Every structure is written in C-alpha cells, then in structure tokens.
Amino acid sequence: MATRTPGFTRKELDDVVACLKKAMSDPELRKLNQRAVQATVWHEQPQVSALMQRLRRDEEVVRQQILEATSELVYKFHEHTLKATLARAGILHDKRIHAGSSLSRAESFDIFCLDAKERLYLILQNYDWMQDFFRLYPLHFYENSFQFVERIPAKKLKVKVNVVGLGIGGSMAVSGLAKAGIEVVGYEKRQEHGPSSVGSRYQNASWRAYDVASKLLDEEAYEELTRYRQQFNVQYEDGSTGVLVSDRVQIILGNAIEHSIASAKRYGATLKFGTQNVTEEMKQGCDIVALFSGAHTSEIFPEIKPEMNIMSWDDIQSDCKMWLRIKESEKDNFFCVRGGEVGAEHWHYRIESARDTVGDIERVRNCLQSLYDRDIRKAERDEAKKEAVHARYEAQLKQLDEVQFAVEGGKTTGGRFDYIFTNAPTNVHNRAKRDEDAKDGSIVLEGGYKVEVKMASNSKITAKPVLEKFKTDLVVSGGDACVPPNPQAAYGATLACEAAEMVVQLAVGVGHINAILEDMKKMTDFVGEEWIHEMRQLKTLLSEYYNTRGRAENYFQFVQTLICNLYSLPPFEKC
Fold this sequence. Notes:
The protein has 20 helices and 16 strands. The chain is α/β, with parallel strands linked by helices. The strands form 4 sheets. Strands 6-2-1-7-16-15 form a 6-stranded mixed beta sheet, with helices on both faces. A 5-stranded antiparallel beta sheet has the order 10-11-12-9-13, sandwiched between helices.
C-alpha cells in the first residue's frame, strides 16, 4: 500500500470549494446566521470534515513519533542515571544532587544524562503531553511515581528566536518566548506609538485565545485582556435565573497588542520598531525566525512564496465595509455583546461594549488622523474633495472630543462610553445600515477591505536560500501569513495567538535539545554519532509537528473564511 503524503492537494481544496459553493446556494441554509451555517456545514458536508480529520491524523502521527523517540531517548539516558534519579527524588543521598539542583554543570556522565532526561520531560510538559506519555509508555511510569518530574527546576535554554511582525500573534509570541527565558528579538516596521503605529488597530474582536494568553503573558496584561468577558442571562425551567460566562472575551486589537508588547518588555524582550529592511537588521544568526507579518507576508518576502505553496481562489473574494461608533453610554455597568442581522448577503456582525478606557478613544483619534492625512493626499488638487474630507474629519473629531470630555468629566453613567464596531459585506442593503447609524453623528471611523481566500500548504520553511537570507536554521510562519481571515468570522486573532503558542512550544523544545547536543560534544567518550543523530531527529520532528498542526489549524480558518465569503456573495448555483 502506497504511503500518502501528509497535507492536501490543490484538487482536494478545489473539491471542498466546489462542495461549499453548492451547499451555500441552498436558500434555506442562507437564512441562518453564519455561525449556524458553520455548524451545519461541518456536520452535513462530510467532504469538508473528512479532510480536517485527515489533517488531524497527520498531526497525531507526528506527535506519536515524538513520543516514541522521546521514550527511547529517556530509556537510554535513564540507563546511566538510575542512582542519580533516586537521589533527585530524595530516596538516595548524593551530595552532587538535590531537589533544587539546576544540573547546569554536567561534569560527570550520570549528571549529564539526568539533565538530558529532565530536559526531555520538560519538553513534554511544555506541550502538555506528560500524562499521555506515562500512559502510553508504562516502562517510565514508576519513575514518575516519585513525582520528581513535576518538580524539575527551570533550565537555561540554548536557542535564539527572531519574530517578524508584532501584531496580535507576534507580540504574544515575543512575550511568551521571553517569559520562557528565551533570547528573542521582535521586529516591526511600524512605530510603537502614534498614528499608524503597531497598536493603532481599532477593530474589535470576539476572542477565544485567553487560555493561550494566560500562558504567554504576564498577569497584568492577561487581566487587561480578559476584562470584557461575555456573559448572558439564563432563565431555568424552575423559574430561577443565572448568569453564564461565555468562552469568549472582547478585545480591541490595538489594545491587546499594546498590552502584549508591554508584557514582552517586562520579561526583557528586545523590540525594534520602525524596521524597514528586517533581513538587514538581523546582524547575527538565530535558530528560528517566526513570521507574523500579516496576509501579505509572501509578497513582502517573495522567496518564501513557493516554499509555502500558497493557493488562492480569486473568484470568491468578498468586499466588506466596517464602521465604528463611539457615543456616551447609558449602561449601568460594564457591558459587552455581539450580534447582527441574520441572512446571507444582508448579514452584518456587530460587537458592542461599554467601557471606561479613554486610551481606546486616543487610539481612534490616531487612526482618524492617519486616515485624514491619507485622504487629503489622495484628493491632490481636487479642492471640492478636500473640503469634503476635511468636513468629515472635523465632525468625527468633534464627536470624539465631546465623548472624551464627558467621560473624563464624569458626565456619563459610570464614566463609560459605548464602543460599537460593525462589519458587513458591501452592498446596497448594508450601506443603508451604515447610513442609519450615521444619523446620530456617532460614526468616528469607517473603511473597507477585501477578504481573499488563500491558504499556505506549509508553515515551515527549510529551503537553503531562505535560511541564508534570514541567517537562521528554520523559518516558520503563523496567523494571517498562512491564511487570511474574514474578520466577520471572528477567528483571525484567535488563530494568530494559537500560532504564537506553537512557536513558543517549538522554541522551548529546540532550546532543550540544543543544550543536550552541546553537552554531548563534551561526552564523546560515552556518546556515539547514532545517539547524537537521534537527538537531531527529535528536533526535526518538533518542527514537523509545527507544520502538521499548522495545516490543520489553517484549514479550519480557511473553511471559515470560505463560508463567510460565500455567505456574503450571491449564490454561485441556482437551486
């Protein structure tokens, strides 16, 4: 039986696209809201879910290979370190070893083996695979019964990482890497503060990655990002009522980016803003380069495009409109809700919150200034257009000033203002909604964007010319760089943060393996080439796991974007 190549082919994705085009032409399906459509499609279109299942199996195959390789290596190391292990657990006495020993100076072979074995356990712990490991490989279980594995002290990691792009995914990755004790440098082409800065994004997101944030950010940043947790009231059959907490929080992207950057700084990360030519800025080599540079990454770095194998479907592009309203709030408490009109083409997605964060008004002011400057430049010598641009800017600025003055002066309920962000497909029906919202003068920002349907086959790049350009051993990409989101699906920020966690997991694993390999070079009397090769193979498997898991995560977002675009466009087939 021939071995199947992991991943997907263009034909397989074309078949998924054709399947969804047909499904999304059903008038009954198009009456549902887009989340109901998502749930229906995954259940009723087995072609869509079957490919996802196969990608998850690819991911699991690599995971099992990592666990198997780790088991064999743990056994090899344990063979030379049984007494040292018992001393570590406090069962035997050895003056060289106690529960808090870092084992950073591996002066003898048994100490080196104990350190290496513990590093392998720390890799498993970092991936949250420890329980599975001891269940699947019971020959190691008795060792774990001493529970010393859970008390292994932190160890220095031999790895350097450069992160390109400090949006929501990149900034969280940098924070997580620095938190893990990794030497990391973050590069961003935009400035840190002011108009058009990295934190200037005013878009609202319904976000599920708070569990990732708890691992990658410090407590201060995490508390800020989870402040607006969605809740809803429920009445039970016995007449009692309760409040349920949703699995989502509301974030303003710029605010989340700023807090992630602040967390990274507190952990000691090096951040470089205003970087225009990042490959020239990277003076020294590193182990991993992580690209979080947005949907146009393959255009910014064209040499990676063939390696990522990015596929696109131009006939399903969707034009969308977004607008932001800010006004004085009458809410009695902090408040957040999401909703909108239901039905294909006519749908919109609205995220609303009542907040007291004046910094968010300042962010909007910076965005408004940037848009004004851009529109004035585009108007060139058209004086009438310039006047219209200026009049709109003055009205929007006046609304911001009045709301901020009322909030800071305590003239609004609880010192709060309403932040209402709306996305909608561009058409006559939705433009009428925008015009209705504009009647009270509360629209302070608006714009448009095009949602492209694209996806990369690979999130890992090992081609020599690319590695030489970035002065690294490995290039990985994540978030929008692999699959552009449809913001109305409200998943793009979540995917970027999941990719950030994957980068941290990979870097921690590489850091431990590099430390083991470095010590192996000092133990040539005991360690042969085959043993060293096994360690290197494990490192390769970690990067391949990043790639296979990335395909599955990216495919999920690809299907979301595809469904949202088809939901926004007229039906492709007649039913």
